[in-house]
Every structure is written in C-alpha cells, then in structure tokens.
C-alpha cells in the first residue's frame, strides 16, 4: 500500500482517546479531509461510522482495535505503524443501498455496510411480503423482523439471528429472518449480490415496522427496496496475518 499522508480518528471512549493522543504525538499526520489514508481507532461500530463519514472520498481505512470485538479491526500496536500500513492488504467492499418509503409518503435512502434490517415496532409481529427481482418469493412472513446482510456483515447481526457466514468473494448476500413464526421452518435464503429485494409491509397500520441501514433508522415504513450499490467502493486495510477473508473462514469453526 502506498500513501503520502495519514490522518487519525478515534472513538469517544477513554481507551480510544488515549491511543489517539499517543499516535498523533508519535507520527506526522494531517486532517482527515486532506489524508490519503485514515487510521481509525475504536471498535467495529466506530469503523462503520468512519466508513460512512468518508465514503465520498473513497480513502482507504486501516482500523486498530480499541473497542470490544474488533472483527473489522487490526490489533493495536503503537510502534511500527508506517511499516504495517505499507504492507497492508486491501479489501474492497460494496454497501447495500436501502430505499424506504413510509406511510406518509416520505422516501429515505441510506447505505449499509453490514445489513439492512426490518424490525417490528410494537408487541405485534411484522407481516411481510418478499419480492426478489420483481418475483414474489414469499407471500407472507410473520416474524419479529428480517435482514439482508453483506458478506462483511454476515458475522454481525446476521450471525446472531442464526444466518450463515459468507466469505467475501462469494458474490452473495444473506436473507435471514428474525424469530420467524410463519412459515415456521423457513430459515432464510442466499441471494446473488445482483438481486434486488423488495419488502412490502402488510397491515402496516396495525403492525408497524421500522427499517434500519446500519445505524440509519426509518420508522413506519410500508415498503423497503434493497440492492447492492456497486458504484460505492469501500477500501479496508488489514495486516497480512489479520486478513478479513481468513477471519470469516475461521469464524465458522469456532466452538
């Protein structure tokens, strides 16, 4: 990886602030708006925020874990950073684009690096119809919710909902129900990354549903369209020994 200037950004936690102070005192840096490489200090949630923040600049981002799980982060070490950045490997991700329409007619668009999820808002289960590329694939799903996950996000909420872990190069997304009641045995589907998925909320007034793209929430939706946005390229950097593809494979063998 070649670069001429770096910037540091950090989460608001004490441990991330301390790391930010040490690194900015040790290495030359510029403001994030001027850098051609950004080092993010925090956890996976902060990495998502950083990706969203700088998506228009298409600048590569190297994360160092100052959070909890840190699946998208490299290990934190204060020394040898320039050498680590120089030999880092790149991973290119494409987000999901959500287009949600509410009962009042408002249309909201947002990008998701991990997943787009639909969630019931009240005690009553959501009732959904699912179309894939214009064809009805599930006439009625009664559930707490459903999500469409990218490969990079497949080890996050998707895994907690018992969805499959997806290798980055597989070219598929995971459609995973959350606590399905009917059809009781439906456990989801794997879809080509080119698929366009339309969720139509049934009985929306009685069974209100919210749609969430990473951390952008739209309440009282009546339909939500989701597709991969290939026009957005997101570049993450990883140490060779901390390759994201390897982590995804290894995650599937954890006991």
What would you note in describing this structure?
The structure is a single chain. With 255 residues, the protein is of the alpha+beta class. It has 2 domains: 7-93 and 233-251, Probable inorganic polyphosphate/atp-NAD kinase, domain 1 (Rossmann fold), CATH 3.40.50.10330; 96-228, Sandwich (Tumour Suppressor Smad4), CATH 2.60.200. The chain has 5 helices and 17 strands. The chain has helices at 14-26, 44-53, 81-86, 157-160, 244-251; strands at residues 7-10, 38-42, 61-65, 89-93, 96-102, 107-112, 115-120, 126-132, 135-143, 145-149, 172-178, 189-192, 197-201, 209-213, 216-218, 221-228, 234-238. It has a 6-stranded antiparallel sheet, with no helix packed on it. Strands 12-11-10-7-14-15 form a 6-stranded antiparallel sheet, with no helix packed on it. Strands 1-2-3-17-4 form a 5-stranded mixed sheet, with helices on both faces. The longest helix has 13 residues, at 14-26. The two termini are 35 Å apart.
């Amino acid at each position: 990886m070649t670069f001429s200037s770096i910037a540091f950004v950090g989460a608001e936690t004490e441990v991330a602030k301390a790391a930010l102070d040490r690194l900015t005192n040790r290495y030359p840096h510029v403001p994030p708006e001027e850098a051609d490489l950004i080092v993010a200090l925090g956890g996976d949630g902060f990495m998502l925020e950083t990706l969203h923040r700088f998506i228009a600049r298409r600048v590569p981002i190297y994360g160092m874990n100052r959070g909890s799980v840190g699946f998208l982060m490299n290990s934190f070490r204060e020394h040898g950073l320039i050498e680590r950045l120089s030999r880092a490997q790149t991973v290119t991700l494409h987000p999901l684009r959500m287009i949600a329409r509410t009962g009042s007619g408002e249309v909201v668009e947002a990008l998701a690096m991990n997943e787009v999820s639909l969630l019931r808002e009240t005690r009553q289960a959501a009732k959904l119809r699912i179309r894939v590329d214009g064809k009805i694939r599930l006439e009625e799903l009664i559930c707490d919710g459903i999500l469409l996950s990218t490969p990079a996000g497949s080890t996050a909420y998707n895994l907690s909902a018992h969805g499959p872990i997806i290798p980055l190069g597989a070219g598929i997304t995971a459609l995973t129900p959350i606590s399905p009641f009917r059809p009781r045995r439906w456990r989801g589907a794997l879809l080509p990354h080119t698929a366009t998925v339309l969720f139509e909320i049934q009985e929306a007034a009685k069974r209100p549903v919210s749609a969430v793209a990473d951390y952008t929430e739209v309440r009282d939706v009546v339909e939500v369209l989701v597709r991969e946005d290939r026009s957005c390229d997101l570049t993450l950097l990883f140490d060779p020994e901390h390759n994201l593809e390897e982590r995804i494979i290894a995650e599937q063998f954890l006991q």
